[in-house]
Amino acid sequence: MTDDLIRRGLSRRGLLQTTAGLIGGSVLPAMPAFAEDKPAIGSYPAGVSGSTAFIGISVPRTGTYAVQGEDELKGYQLAIEHINEGHELIKKISPKTSKGVLGKELKFGVADSAAKPNEAVQAQQRFISENKAIMITGGTSSAVAVALNKLAQREHVLFVCGISGSNDTTGKDCVRYGVRQNFFGQTAAAAIGPVMVREFGKGKKAAYLTPDYTYGHTVTKSMQDFLATAGWTTVTNQVAPLGAPDYSSYLLNVANSGADVLINVNWGHDAVLSTQQAKQFGVLDKMKLVVPYQVPFIARETGGLMQGVYAATDYWWTIEDKFPLAKMFNEAFEKKYGYKPEWGAENAYVSFAHWAHMCEEAGSFNPPDVIKVYEKGETIPSLVGDVHYRPEDHQCIRPVIIVKGKQQKDMKNKEDWYDVVEIVPGEGLMQKPDAFGCHLGDYT
Amino acid sequence: MISWPNLVSQLFNGLALGALLALISSGLTIIYGTLGVLNLAHGAMFMIGGYAGFVTYQYTESFILAIIAGSLFVMLLGVVMERTIIRHFYHRPHEDQLLVTFGLGICFVEIIRLIFSSQSQLVPPPAIFQGITNLGFMFYPTYRLAVVGIVAVALGALFIILYRTRLGMIVRAGIEDSVMVDSLGINVYRVFMVVFGIGAMAAGFAGIVNAPVVSLTPGIGDDILVQTFVVVVIGGVGSFPGAILGGLIAGEIISVTSMFNPGYAYVMLFAAMTLVLVVRPHGLLGVQGRE
Asked: How far apart are the first and last CA of chain A?
């Protein structure tokens, strides 16, 4: 029977793990087969005592962030596939990776968060307790990221944050057990602000469209703070709920505000819909549009309304001319999924590759050990050049890409939506680690 | 901060929004009024109307054909749904009806997501309605103006069907007392099928007419469903004029509140609904004493 099970792919360690699971996690450290030199913490070592390690993924597959969530999920899946096979690109980021992480094959579960914190927390709690997830990930909504931060700290399971632009994520809501690869809203403001002042001048009047949650408020505040230094004023700030079905009332207020520039802080389908409706209401004929924290899909979904519009983003595929790893990633992604990867996919892929790097460097899945490697702040490769994580707030210091929407006639192919105007280095752009009151919690 | 042009703009915007809500709600209220079924798949019908129209537009590039195809497809879907599923629930508790229609709505959304993905789809307005019109006191998207007209015509057509035809007479009688209509020798179940089809068609029609305004996503019906229910409750469950009145009131509340503080738009909407329920439990134009 044992032979039969092994033939079917169930290893002896897998059998032991299953048996151990039945007996209960509390006795694991006492069992010789699981003897470890580290005390048990969170899902460690229960989650990695077999031949596999499980990751809990929660992305929005429905709701206003569904498109970005699907792109993000594809990035995670490609990263896991590459890590498990020891792909050349993963080895460039995590040189010690052979196959899997520390020789363990990665398995994963996916839950639809619908960009709702409660749903994400419930799903991840299940992945932790039932699947002994050794790492959890998710985001796209900063409200989700902040909620998962708290869960990760409580459960002592590492949370590798997906897309989250709120200043709070690695600011006031930062945790020891959370790391974030993409940048603060404030960083986006600091990167795109000078471009706006250069392009539109000083002393302008700005109208804002702000989604009503942590991400929206912090990005708007960051933009307002930065632009105030150039004499810009806010004539109206229209705060709409996440997933608002219609922006007409908000846009009428914007249209009547006398603003020179509309700063649309919305993201996902909200950004698409509000931009389309801004066009319908003639707002874009009256004032310039800027999207300070931009979702690349907006260009294709608005059918060209981003032409000439400046935006700050995490990733745009044409930077492959400058970054060989980006080229490798784009090729692998496009081969598998049939389109150029966007921000979510890049963020997901790199976040996992970095996590693999940290585990390999730690030589263990033990969370405090892995966190301490993040906190070494060593320079490691990413798709946008070398980056590092700050020990004080676990924020990755990475460049911000400033793009400008291309005119249709200049597009070389159907996915050539943007010109990369500037790649602004992260150093000097990101505010101090304590700027938003980050106090990391304990390791244990 | 409050200027007259801004107030008038928002009042007008409320009218446009209200007209659309009135149309969708009229379908919901006709179905409930006649069949006693609270159709939670109504938002999905609205969404499917948009997608059916979108597909037609892709092939024909005709907005008129898109409207016709979108409406008819959803009407057919409504009829099939009524014949195969809903009719088994007429005499079941309301909670069963709610759950089964809610479930159907989820299925419809996921089927559409499977076929079209979550990316939004664009249906451009007809060429003659593109651009912006100067109304004197404000500039307003021409197509949204057209929507007010189109919806008014559609509501007029529904009114004629309900109040000037034999079918309408039976339907209205059915709203009052379906047992009595049945005992008069009229096959109420065949009427029910038609009523369900008409109610669904109203949602489908609204879906494709609204598509150029909002762009299509699989979840678009979820957003509108809650507002539609509020409209029906304000106007009076089962009342066609109530749906129109409720729609216009809801549109104005959302729009005018948004002028002062958009965050309170829905709060005010639900506050208004609560107030109506306290003062007139059957809604503004609801029929008192109806089971």
From this structure: 42
pTM (predicted TM-score): 0.80
Q: Is A277 close to B224, i.e. CB distance below 8 A?
A: no
- Yes or no, beta carbons of B258 and A249 under 8 Å apart: yes
Contact of A77 with A156, CB cutoff 8 Å: no
As a whole number of Å, the end-to-end CA separation of chain B is 48
User: For testing the chain A interface, which of B258, B264, B267 should be mutated: the one with the most A CBs within 10 Å?
Assistant: B258
Q: Could you give the CA distance from residue A110 to residue A104 in angstroms, rounded to a whole number?
A: 19
Cβ atoms A254, A236 nearer than 8 A: yes
A236 touches chain B (CB under 8 A): no
Would you call B140 and A281 a contact, using CB atoms and an 8 Å cutoff? yes
Q: Which of B119, B131, B125, B163 is nearest to B26 (CA)?
A: B163
Contact yes or no for B109/A112 (Cβ under 8 A): no
Whether A248 has its CB under 8 Å from any CB of chain B: the answer is yes
pLDDT grade for A7, boundaries at 50, 70 and 90: very low
Closest-approach residue (CA) in chain A for B251:
A249
Q: Per-residue pLDDT tens for A285-342?
A: 999 999 988 777 888 888 788 898 998 999 999 999 999 999 999 999 999 999 999 9
* CA–CA gap between residue A136 and residue A42 (Å, rounded): 12
Q: Token pair 């079924």 is at which residue?
A: B37
